[in-house]
Amino acid sequence: MTKGNDNGARFGSVVEFQTAADAYFDACDAAGKLYGEAGLCLALGVSLTTLRRWYDGKTCPELQEAVQRAYLRIQDQIETHPVYMEKGGMTSRAIFMLKQPRFAGYTDKVEARQDMTVNIKHGKDMNESDFK
Fold it and tell me: What confidence tens digit (pLDDT) does each residue in 15-61 have?
């Protein structure tokens, strides 16, 4: 199943990768476990760095779309699974995860301050009577 090399090509084809990823998701569903990036790495037998390089297309660009779909599946669960909607720690976890660039990449609202400084330079011929 795997064809190890340091740059990534551990799977002979996109179909092999997709089959392995689907097996991970199916196993999680059967066990009632939530999906995760670390779990996907462990199931695929790759490091987090390798999976992220595939996601970014830095290595094995032929796997990029399939890897991104796997991340979308994790993101979809975070956005829709009832356990993430419960009050408590899982809601915070969902918010944190959805801020990660490989999931939704959401950001907090940033409020811009609009302070303005005006510097007036007076000409040679101006005097105090010009300001009355």
Answer: 999 999 999 999 999 999 999 999 999 999 999 999 999 999 999 99
Regarding pTM above 0.85, the answer is: no
Q: CA-to-CA distance for 108 and 87, rounded, in angstroms?
A: 20
- Using one digit for the tens of pLDDT, what is the confidence trace for 62-89? 999 999 999 999 988 888 888 777 666 5
Q: From 112, 105, 113, 78, select the one nearest 92 (Cα to Cα).
A: 78
What are the structure tokens assigned to 132, written together?
Answer: 């009355």
Write the DSSP symbol of residue 35: P
Torsion sign, CA atoms 82, 45, 23, 100: positive
Closest CA to 38 of 29, 48, 30: 48
